[in-house]
Design brief:
- The complex is a heterotetramer, with two copies of chain A and two copies of chain B.
- Helices cover about 30% and strands about 25% of the residues of chain A.
- Chain A is an alpha/beta fold.
- Chain A folds into two domains: about 210 residues, Glutaconate Coenzyme A-transferase, CATH 3.40.1080; about 35 residues, no CATH class.
- In chain A, α1 crosses α2 and α3 packs across α4.
- The longest helix of chain A is centred in the middle third of the chain and has 13 residues.
- Chain A is globular, with a radius of gyration of 19 Å.
- The chains are: A alpha/beta, B alpha/beta.
- Chains in contact: A-B, A-C, A-D, B-C, C-D.
- Chains C and D meet through α4, α5 and α7 of C and α3, β7 and α4 of D.
């Protein structure tokens, strides 16, 4: 676990500097579209032509995954779904999946949380009720069914600990101590705790140490988990940041239309990703 | 009486929810949400958790909390759909006939842990209601050794309502929506099911229900599903008689 | 799980009303002294002569347990320690333990958290690393060692799910919707999630619904978990509420001295517990 | 040079912490905290987490987070004491000879998961340092099949410093504090241990270390352990030369 003992949060210049530090082949834990996504880094990864990434949806993937898949950055995904929400199917994911151009490990939301919680606790597995009898169990390489040691003849499913190489997300605030504030988006804390390294873009810099503030502390992820932060105002756009700005529905719908064809997707990249864009 | 199809489905869902205390409604489910909020007008103690609501989300610990809540037995009613649903109440959200769908979401867990699940899919066709799903995202029933708190209670489509018969592991056609015919249901359903000699019509909304739907319910729904509210109730969101 | 489907938080009059609802014989999950303890309810339990309680320390017990044990309310405790912190040993606990007048299930902090997390997830057990070879394992009735199903010859310990009948603690705020704000005291949320019913005293009432406030929501426990709340200004005294008032060290030290003898403890009860006291 | 016993112990602890990046210090441990903050003066990147600090607690998720952090391998050094400590580095925090102690706290976990543990107990007597503990709260070593990230590094008492010999599973008397004698250590230690022919004296604080201790370190410690700071450094908390 390369970076686990890192305890000094580094302050990087921008999203591109983060994308430079995420190596090809890395597995990346990503939040859902309704939890702040580091879209500025996603675009920077496309610009730096990242390759062979594995995306882990915690627990689902959306726009960021569709863009990375369409741009050829992704080898494999593990997720319980890929969706653009109200804008419908994720077109580049769907196309890649139907062509067989992407390894897909299908999961179900709570099993992904459970696998990350196992890593968070430092245990090799964690059990979950339900799921048995689903074809997910037959196909998933890391799940096992055992007999509940507390009750005979009671099969129960185990999730193997999931250890992403990189946690990547966006936060409303970072402070001078390297803490980030994500509010009630607890899945971001779980990803940060479970990952070998953690990169966070933020909207605004707060002075001082938010952990000294009893009101802000509960929404913070402590700097002990954070490898580096970088400023990215409106860095979740076209997705949103709760309490700051909402999802740009019109843009996501426009994306969904353009990305329906490979040519339209390339045009989207040209217009919104490959040249720097003002949100 | 004049009412929209969505209003019929919502009042049916309200009846199916019954005496539940806590209903969770997933993203992109305006009709189940409408049914739940209609019921809440009659039973204010009903708790409704709208998942992935953009603001005022009921959870404080992120996306894991819904599943923990269900695991604790605190969710009485949940809704699931399916790209395919079969006669054993299995659902498929992953892939069929070369087509890829978004994925299973939390279905494989919620179907077991919620007190009961209402299957809801507007499209009623042999393409959706199949003999056997191509991929089991979540099974409709489990053998006795598998711990399972809940399971399907009913399957509601745009044409009909089926009740789930737990012992027989088969659907029973309970009612056909007004204007439809039992023969048409048989022709459009890929799986076999039981039916009584006389299949009743699904009861439509009462005038009182319609007043609530077009008044306070439309108002709440418009906040969370603006497109849907506009389509069903128009810009004006008329109250009372239309 | 009697109260799990309860979804309407009731608003009770005071701490005594809560004590009336906690039945003799109940198992009660309690936070440590540095996390707000519902001391006003503890005193009310002594006044109502509660009997045969089982106290579960999450993960340690302090003043509240010592008072309840001294007053004869307690049959059994499960905890990783009982301590008055800087004021030293918990005298009534120590006396009862040395006389054999109390059943003590010794645990270790993370195993208690783990057992509660199992209940929080709805699973019958959860694994934890370490602990093996400790005499705690030999004596604990609910822990089991299994072979890690993912790796041969790798023993690992399991905590059985812990399900307290009652969660009991104090919060800074409660709101009109029945939510309570506990800030970064995450152990309180774990106790609330895992218990069949949950009673909370609070310092101040907030208008509206704190879950609608992005800044307050992360420190809240949602009303879905809360059976009832009651006002108790300075209700944690002589312990503290982070951000409001600190521990009354002088009082705790005075307690420790008085409670060193049975007679002194009775005098403490007479003075500070049996007659209503202004903090 | 004049210095307090606590200052000697603190500088010894600073040396034992060595190149760690993250040290966690438990409640009621002012001397380990002093050692850690002394080291931080020389290595500002050292992260110190004071557990159960009354304000400015480093954790945001409550008391579970320390243990999760340790489980993740993010705690390099931890401190443990014991009502009894034996020659195999087992510690007992539960009960001995009819006496009940507070309990094991997190020792049975932290001793395995922290990178290394410094055993610290000021009292050096046959009552504390026993041949075999009456109750193993946390074992000093584990058989090879048991996964264990860390274990004891040293045992520091008010009289001496022992190094732990992992292979031999025995302590080695490394140094005796100034003024003490190896014979006295043998007489006051209930367990057997190795010792070199010549046992050196524990190095005392350097003038530079004393300046730091009595200046910025005393200031930080006074915030968190006011009684202790007053006892060691007085009300005035003198800086530099005394």
């Amino acid at each position: 676990m390369s970076d686990l003992r890192s305890n000094e949060t580094r302050f990087l210049e921008d999203a591109d500097a983060i994308a430079q530090e995420i190596p090809d082949g890395a597995s990346i834990g990503l939040p859902p579209d309704y939890s702040p996504v580091a879209m500025a880094v996603v675009r920077a990864l496309v610009r730096r032509k990242a390759r062979q990434l594995k995306l882990i949806g915690v627990p689902v993937l959306g726009l960021c995954a569709d863009i990375l898949i369409g741009a050829g950055c992704v080898r494999e995904i593990e997720t319980s779904a890929v969706t653009l929400g109200e804008a419908g199917l994720a077109p580049r994911f769907t196309a890649a999946a139907e062509k067989g151009a992407l390894r897909i490990i299908d999961a179900t939301c709570p099993m992904i949380h459970t696998g990350l919680q196992a890593t968070e606790k430092g245990v090799p597995f964690m059990p979950l009720r339900g799921v048995l009898g689903s074809d997910l169990v037959r196909h998933h390489p890391d799940w096992k069914t055992i007999d509940n040691p507390y009750s005979e003849g009671d099969p129960i499913l185990l999730a193997k600990a999931i250890v992403p190489d990189v946690a990547l997300f966006h936060a409303r605030w970072a402070d001078e101590a390297g803490n980030v504030w994500v509010g009630r988006r607890g899945e971001l804390a779980t990803i940060a705790h479970a990952s070998k390294s953690c990169y966070v873009t933020y909207e605004e810099r707060q002075a001082g140490d938010m952990l000294e503030d009893e009101i802000l502390a509960p929404g913070c992820i402590g700097s002990v988990y954070i490898s580096a932060v970088a400023p990215a105002p409106r860095g979740a756009w076209p997705l949103g940041v709760p309490g700051m700005y909402g999802i740009d529905d019109a843009h996501v719908q426009a994306y969904a239309r353009m990305a329906n064809t490979a040519a339209g997707f390339q045009q989207y990249l040209d217009e919104f990703v490959l040249k720097p864009v003002a949100a | 009486m004049n009412y929209a199809k969505e209003e019929l489905l919502a009042v049916t869902i309200a009846r199916l929810i019954g005496d539940a205390r806590h209903v969770a409604v997933g993203a992109a489910s305006p009709i189940p949400a409408t049914g739940a909020f209609l019921l809440k007008q009659q039973n204010p103690a009903l708790r409704i958790s709208l998942l992935q609501k953009r603001s005022g989300n009921p959870f404080t610990e992120g996306s894991r909390e819904l599943f923990d809540l269900a695991g604790q037995g605190r969710i009485d009613v949940f809704f699931l759909g399916g790209a395919q649903i079969d006669g054993e109440a299995n659902i498929n959200l992953v892939a069929a006939e070369g087509k890829r769908f978004p994925g299973s979401f939390g279905s494989a867990f919620m179907y077991f842990t919620a007190g009961k699940t209402i299957l809801f899919r507007e499209e009623h066709s042999p393409r959706v209601l199949v003999k056997k799903v191509d991929y089991v995202s979540a099974p409709g029933w489990s053998p006795p050794e598998i711990e399972r708190r809940g399971g399907p209670a009913a399957l509601l489509t745009g044409k009909a309502l089926f009740a789930w018969q737990t012992e027989k592991r088969r659907f029973l056609l309970e009612s056909v929506h007004p204007g439809g015919k039992a023969d048409d249901i048989r022709a459009n359903t890929g799986f076999d099911y039981d039916m009584p000699a006389q299949v009743p019509a699904t009861p439509g909304p009462t005038p009182a229900e319609l007043r609530l739907l077009r008044g306070s319910v439309a108002h709440v729904i418009a906040e969370n599903y603006p497109e849907f509210a506009r389509r069903v109730w128009g810009e004006a969101r008329p109250t009372a008689t239309t």
